[in-house]
Write a structure and sequence with these properties.
three-stranded antiparallel beta sheet, alpha+beta, elongated
């Protein structure tokens, strides 16, 4: 005879109570040991840090299983951006809703594509700009783009600046920055 929902929930509640008691006893015992042998707590903390570091070193490729970012495991997948580039973007990112775009990027020349984390705290913004610029002037153009972004967002901190010649003959300029709130 199959279990009813009531019976199943009753069994599960008992299991959770037993599990909580066990965790509580384990925690009490651990605190006792830490009081008796303080070095044991230091050793436990070192082991925990080594485990975290080993885990971070294992997952270092966004094209593979994923990476840890601030102790959160993030998986990535390739996305076509404006038909011009294929980038690995976190799987949980969505296209920012238009009404949010207008609030976060009030300029009428806002980026063409804005992808965001679910809490909207991290954004990837992309624009395809057809500007015929000689290679010798790419540095100047990049500096002007940075100054424009810095004027609009004085708290912006730039982390990466890259320029790459694409197979199509076009040049890609990538600026990675963080806007500090």
């Amino acid at each position: 005879m199959p279990l009813s929902n009531f019976d199943y929930e009753k069994i599960f509640r008992e299991y959770e109570k037993k599990q909580m008691r066990t965790w509580h006893l384990l925690d009490e015992r651990r605190r006792e040991i830490y009081c008796l042998i303080p070095e044991y707590k230091i050793l436990d903390e070192k082991i925990a840090e080594l485990k975290r570091e080993r885990r971070r070193l294992k997952y270092t490729d966004i094209t593979g299983e994923g990476v840890f970012i601030s102790d959160v495991f993030v998986t990535f997948g390739p996305r076509e951006i404006l038909g011009a580039a294929r980038l690995y973007i976190p799987d949980t990112f969505i296209e920012m809703p238009k009404e949010v775009q207008r609030m976060k990027f009030p300029s009428v020349s806002r980026p063409q594509v804005i992808l965001t984390s679910l809490d909207s705290s991290v954004n990837f913004a992309f624009s395809l700009v057809d500007i015929r610029t000689p290679d010798s002037q790419i540095g100047t153009l990049t500096l002007q783009m940075k100054e424009t972004l810095k004027t609009a967002n004085p708290a912006a901190v730039f982390y990466i600046e890259e320029s790459e010649l694409l197979d199509s003959g076009a040049r890609s300029v990538c600026l990675i920055l963080k806007i500090l709130a």
